[in-house]
Amino acid sequence: MLELNSELREIYLEPGELHIAREPAIIRTALGASIGITFWSPKLRVGALCHPLLPYCPTDLTAENRLVTGCRYVDFSIRQLAWQFDQLDVSRRSTSEGVWPRRSCGKSARQQNRRSGN
Hints:
Layout: E1 9-13, E2 18-21, E3 25-29, E4 35-41, E5 46-50, H1 63-69, H2 74-87, E6 96-101, H3 105-116
Parallel strand pairs: 1-3
Antiparallel strand pairs: 2-5, 4-5, 4-6
């Protein structure tokens, strides 16, 4: 098992939050029915994780409400992280992105079908 450096700062993301780490850190979250989205710039060694819950941000939110609640939404979170990486002058071609679904999602769907008789 990989041993983690205990001197690293640990950040735990709740659903609907995002974090950009400009220095070494451990960013954790627990995925339920949601996903985690990561960004990584190997050149600057800057990483990010967001934990959105819903796919699309409502268009009728005020600009102020978008800043407060926008990270709950996949589309807003991706745009926000891309904008923050742009501010750090990170080329989008030089970043790695990842989408991490809940691992047991398929198993849960099968179990749910069994319970409902499908």
